[in-house]
């Protein structure tokens, strides 16, 4: 199944000697130019004029605000800048096509974490901060759904129960521990349905039972080795179409979108104190405020972020379901399938659209993929990668061994599993985003490091950032305190990174 033009590691990777005596050097890079993989979302909008839009033929020489990046962060930040300062000029710079980075390459979920990450957040930041993180995600999801409905955004919105299903005892034990810790800390759980009975969690052995359960509203996983099942409201959607709706409105209100305009560096203006120069391949633009909304690419433009925000490629597989999982027999919920060693499948059945099933997350093949990236650091921002064998094989193995009735199909595996794409996630050194003014750089702002979870954070992070830009306090943003980028947070992370660099890799 592997594409010969793309790297495929062996089924197992063994090294008898340490790869190096220290951890790898900092990884960073600009958006890849030239050939790239075509995501399911981008493939569906080929020919849309917004992809290559330039509001003006020439790059403006100056602006009040320059937003770098046109994904959901940059697009929503632009929206709130225009609402806050309708008389100011806003230019949006995009290195490639509109919304062709992580937003245009994700798995299509807006799934607020309502319990799963609590134990780790509590360990890292304390109980109250952990509660605030999860409360913010619920608010973000609510705001996103409200915006889509009120503005009648045509983005294939689905709202229903998402299921988290641990399929190993290790995953089940950790899930239960985190859920019980969250409940004991006062976290809201009345909207979460839970069963810890494996037989009940895995129920639905035939389609008659499936039909009856749908009539009664019961939720079961349809996963053979389910050890438990947690369900709560969440969404899936077409992320590019959502961002495009917002950007079209931005342009109609005066925003200047410039695609295929890579920003190369940001430096102080030599002529005007307090202003910045953004150097691009197509020229320079002077401005008072710069907003870094490039997520995984942030450290390429701003050196102080190197090691703090790291690009990490991930794969997503588009699977054509067999006839046994088509139409009314298809999956009707989104999923997080929780495995041992913190591996995860996210599953998005496009039940509001064409019925294909998207598999994302950090599946069991992701570790080999990341090991390959460590050996080829120049590929850390390469989103041309497709059909990485160990990841695609993990999807096939899971679907055929765990989804009840899937393996009975006679469909050619090449047809079922033969399409995939890559995207670059912005990983944060402490696991949460960076929002606020860059320390020591007055007038430069950032919203990045979303850890592959931006859809459940950006709809509140973007307006929060603009409130700060307008002189508001951090409290006015209602964002978790641990999201704020501060000098002390950056210092602590750099000290931790320096210590890690001295630890041998064995």
Structure notes:
With 506 residues, the chain is of the alpha/beta class. It has a domain at 159-236 and 311-426: D-Amino Acid Oxidase, Chain A, domain 2, CATH 3.30.9.10. It contains 15 helices and 18 strands. Strands 3, 4, 5, 6, 12, 13, 14, 15 and 16 form a 9-stranded mixed β-sheet that branches. A 6-stranded mixed β-sheet has the order 7-2-1-11-18-17, with helices on one face. The protein has a 3-stranded antiparallel β-sheet with strand order 8-9-10, with no helix packed on it. Helix 2 (72-84) crosses helix 13.
In CATH's first tier, which class of one domain applies? Alpha Beta
User: Structural class of the secondary structure composition?
Assistant: alpha/beta
- Classify the beta-strand content into a percent band: 15-25%
Give the overall shape, derived from the CA principal axes: globular
Quick synopsis:
The protein has helices at 40-43, 72-84, 118-125, 127-150, 169-184, 198-201, 207-216, 239-252, 298-301, 366-375, 389-402, 413-417, 458-469, 474-477, 487-501, and strands at residues 65-68, 90-93, 109-110, 158-166, 193-195, 229-236, 256-258, 263-268, 276-280, 283-287, 289-292, 309-319, 334-338, 344-349, 357-360, 419-428, 434-437, 444-448. With 506 residues, it is of the alpha/beta class.
State the main characteristics.
single chain, 506 residues, alpha/beta, D-Amino Acid Oxidase, Chain A, domain 2, 9-stranded mixed sheet, 6-stranded mixed sheet, 18 strands, globular, disordered N terminus
């Amino acid at each position: 199944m592997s594409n010969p033009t793309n790297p495929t590691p062996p089924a197992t990777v063994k090294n008898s000697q340490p790869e190096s005596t220290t951890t790898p050097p900092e990884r960073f890079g600009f958006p890849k130019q030239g050939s790239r993989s075509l995501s399911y979302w981008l493939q569906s909008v080929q020919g849309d004029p917004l992809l290559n839009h330039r509001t003006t033929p020439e790059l403006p020489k100056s602006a009040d605000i320059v937003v770098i990046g046109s994904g959901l962060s940059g697009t929503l930040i632009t929206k709130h800048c225009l609402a806050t300062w309708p008389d100011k000029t806003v230019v949006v710079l995009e290195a490639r096509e509109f919304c062709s980075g992580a937003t245009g390459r994700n798995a299509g979920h807006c799934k607020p974490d309502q319990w799963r990450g609590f134990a780790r957040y509590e360990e890292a930041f304390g109980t109250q901060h952990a509660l605030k993180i999860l409360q913010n995600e619920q608010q973000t999801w609510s705001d996103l759904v409200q915006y889509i409905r009120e503005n009648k955004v045509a983005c294939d919105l689905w709202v229903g129960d998402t299921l988290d299903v641990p399929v190993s005892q290790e995953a089940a034990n950790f899930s239960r521990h985190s859920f019980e810790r969250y409940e004991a800390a006062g976290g809201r759980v009345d909207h979460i349905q839970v069963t810890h009975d494996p037989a009940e969690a895995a129920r639905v052995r035939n389609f008659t039972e499936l039909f009856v359960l749908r009539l009664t509203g019961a939720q079961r996983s349809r996963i053979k080795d389910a050890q438990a099942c947690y369900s709560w409201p969440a969404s899936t959607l077409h992320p590019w179409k959502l961002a495009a709706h917002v950007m079209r409105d931005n342009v109609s209100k005066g925003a200047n979108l410039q695609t295929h305009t890579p920003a190369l560096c940001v430096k102080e203006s030599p002529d005007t104190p307090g202003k910045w120069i953004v150097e691009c391949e197509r020229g320079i633009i002077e401005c008072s405020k710069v907003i870094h909304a490039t997520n995984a690419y942030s450290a390429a433009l701003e050196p102080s972020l190197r090691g703090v925000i790291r690009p990490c490629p991930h794969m997503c597989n588009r699977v054509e379901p067999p006839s046994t999982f088509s139409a009314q027999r298809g999956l009707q919920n989104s999923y997080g399938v929780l495995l041992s060693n913190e591996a995860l499948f996210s599953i998005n059945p496009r039940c509001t659209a064409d019925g294909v099933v998207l598999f994302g997350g950090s599946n069991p093949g992701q570790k080999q993929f990341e090991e390959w990236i460590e050996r080829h650091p120049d590929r850390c921002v390469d989103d041309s990668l497709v059909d990485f064998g160990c990841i695609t094989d993990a999807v096939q193995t899971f679907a055929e061994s765990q989804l009840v009735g899937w393996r009975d199909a006679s469909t050619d595996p090449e047809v079922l599993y033969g399409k995939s794409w890559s995207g670059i996630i912005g990983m944060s050194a402490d696991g949460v985003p960076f929002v606020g003014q860059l320390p020591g750089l007055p007038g430069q702002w950032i919203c990045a490091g979303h850890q592959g979870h931006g859809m459940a954070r950006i709809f509140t992070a973007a307006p929060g950032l603009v409130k700060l830009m307008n002189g508001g306090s951090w409290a006015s943003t209602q964002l978790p305190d641990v999201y704020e980028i501060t000098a002390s947070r950056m210092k602590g992370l750099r000290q931790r990174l320096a210590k890690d660099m001295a630890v041998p890799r064995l």
